[in-house]
Amino acid sequence: MKSKIQAISSFLTERKERLKPEEANELNLKRIEKINFSGQIHLVENKPTKTGMIVVKKGDLVISGINVAKGALAVYEGDEDVVATIHYSSYSFDKEKIDINFLKWFLKSPAFVDALEEQTGGGIKTEIKAKKFLSL
Q1: Which range of residues forms the domain containing residue 31?
Q2: DSSP per-residue letters across 65-123
Q3: Is the pLDDT of residue 96 over 70?
């Protein structure tokens, strides 16, 4: 049986909720400081922001738009919502359509990293935004 090739957008949905800096600071939620290249999320508390933030919910796939090609992606497993700068993006996924562990493996594969590099052009500004990520 041959598998059908599908865009990531067929099973991932970007979480579009955005917070202005003042809103994010008032909520006093933990913040994603970084996702290391092994896929571990590092959180900080009580870190005020002066930039727009996204909301990340339990079970979301979170990617660093700057370092996703190096492995900076993870599934957030915490019980409480957290925030992250707009250099990250978070996605809910359809468990009926994709196994998240397979997806995490695939997103770190050489084939996908090559596709990412094609999208970003490989220059200095290599950040990938949700629109381009979901089109892959």
Answers
A1: 8-135
A2: TTTGGGT-EEE---SS-EEEETTEEEEEE-TTT--HHHHHHHHTSHHHHHHHHHHHTTS
A3: yes
Domain annotation covers residue 2:
no
121, pLDDT greater than 80: no
The answer, yes or no, to whether residue 33 has pLDDT greater than 60, is: yes
Q: Give the total number of structural domains in the chain.
A: 1
Both tokens of 21, joined, read 């800096």
Whole-number pLDDT of residue 116? 82
CATH of the domain at 123: 3.90.220.20
Q: Which residue type is seen at 87? A: H
CA 11 to chain centre: 14
Quote the pLDDT of residue 56. Answer: 98
Adjacency order of strands within the sheet including 18-19: 18-19, 53-56, 82-85, 31-35, 41-44
